[in-house]
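USER:
Class, as today's exercise, take the chain set out below, and explain how the chain folds.
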Amino acid sequence: MTVYLPIMLNCSDKHCVVVGGGKVAERKTLGLLEAGAAVTIISPALTPRLAELSDNASVVWLNRNYAPGDARGAFLVYAATDDPAVNEEVAREADSLGVPVNVGSHAEAGSFITPGVLRRGRLTVAVSTSGAGPGITAEISKLLEEMLGEEYEVYLDFIYEMRQEIKRQERSPEVRKRLLKRLGTLNVLDEIRGGAFTAWDSEQIKTWIAQHREE
């Protein structure tokens, strides 16, 4: 079994290439766009959704088959055609250029795989079964979706703002560490779930920091 390194990759404005225009290519493209990538699709045909993205200039569409050199200069490449031979050709070229490549028809032929993803604002949870099957991955992702509700988006925004204010207002590393540890004990998540939480204003945050600075 191949052991993959989990990693969160910043694809914002990065040139990413998707070879293929079917349902698999559509899923890969939508994931890249969600991450802010600049996507080029190479395929003689597109799904209706991909055609719509091309029409509104959300992606660049090269209306042709893959050709040698198409992987050059890419940040990531997805080989997502329905022809395994073409996908492996794409993978070989990408590997020769040192470009990370994902192969939809044969995961082991690529250098990375794309996990199932659950997002709740700042929270991102990735699920991979290392080839056991997309259906199992989807089942696990569904369980996590039920466990990690939308309240986590509000909660993590609150925690992020508090951490930023603690770092801004407190110069002492020891005191910052103490405040950040104390922050983790707040019962905010239950308040959000119960509908009793109101976002703190700057004065409330300042008061909380002052009250717990010496504890």
